[in-house]
Design goal:
This protein is α/β, with parallel strands linked by helices. It has one domain: Nucleoside phosphorylase domain (Rossmann fold), CATH 3.40.50. The protein is 36% helix and 30% strand. Strands 5-9-8-6-10 form a 5-stranded mixed barrel, surrounded by 4 helices. Strand 8, helix 4 and strand 9 form a beta-alpha-beta unit. The mean pLDDT is 92.
């Protein structure tokens, strides 16, 4: 039986995926809400980590230790740093960075993590499946691309800072969890991939845009997860 782990940071992201699951049971571990069920014939272990890299990393390790998933997906929303991406558009990660990890004082690039490197490559086999998934989804309301996700423990509202991250890492979308989940999966030798739908961009009133679109973007991200599970 195929088994995947799915990590979401927020309740709105978790609910969107949970609604697509069947045969569900619930389990709480260290106050983390796990849902075990199925999407199609794929067993899914879904968990809400809480916001930020530490919460996400902690949750991912518990998920791996307890349930031993074959792969891990991080699904949810993020802020666009690519001017070609609009609200609802989806980025499937080929690489992930930690844009706030900085040991440049020791002659490393910004984002370099000891024992990990400048970035983490996402699983190529999973990328192949997702490539087929996004090519089969016919939806004029959003577009999907395979790109780069970067993470940091900040919700930036300064346009200059967002442009700086985009230019430094060629990043398409930013969040607060994906790269830390990827790092734990990488160190534990579990294939990983991230899915982020755009909830906001580089507009002036970024927080209002986020609040207006987080539920919509979460639903789109969950549809990509659903289609993946049907093909996995």
């Amino acid at each position: 039986m195929k088994k995947i782990g799915i990590v979401c940071a927020m309740k709105v992201e978790k609910v969107a995926i949970e609604e697509k699951m069947t045969q569900k049971t619930n389990e709480t571990i260290y106050n983390l809400p796990f849902v075990i069920g199925y999407i199609g014939n794929t067993e899914c272990i879904l968990v809400q980590s809480g916001v930020g890299k530490v919460n996400a990393a902690r949750t991912t390790q518990i998920l791996i230790d307890k349930y031993k998933p074959e792969i891990i997906i991080n699904a949810g929303v993020g802020g666009s740093l690519n001017p070609e991406l609009n609200i609802g558009d989806v980025v499937i990660s080929k690489q992930v960075f930690q844009h706030d990890f900085d040991i440049t004082a020791f002659d490393h690039k910004k984002g370099y993590v000891p024992e990990v490197g400048d970035y983490i490559e996402c699983d190529k086999n999973l990328l192949g499946i997702f490539y087929n998934v996004i090519n089969q989804i016919e939806n004029e309301s959003f577009k999907t691309k395979i790109g780069i996700i970067s993470s940091g423990d900040q919700f930036y509202t300064e346009i200059d800072k967002m442009k700086e991250i985009h230019n430094l890492f060629n990043t398409d979308i930013a969040d607060m969890e994906c790269s830390s989940i990827a790092q734990v999966a990488y160190l534990d030798n579990v294939p990983f991939i991230g899915i982020r739908s755009v909830s906001d961009g580089m507009e002036k009133d970024k927080i209002s845009t986020y609040k207006e679109n987080v539920e919509y973007a979460s639903e789109i991200s969950s549809k990509i997860v659903e289609e993946f599970c049907m093909q996995y």
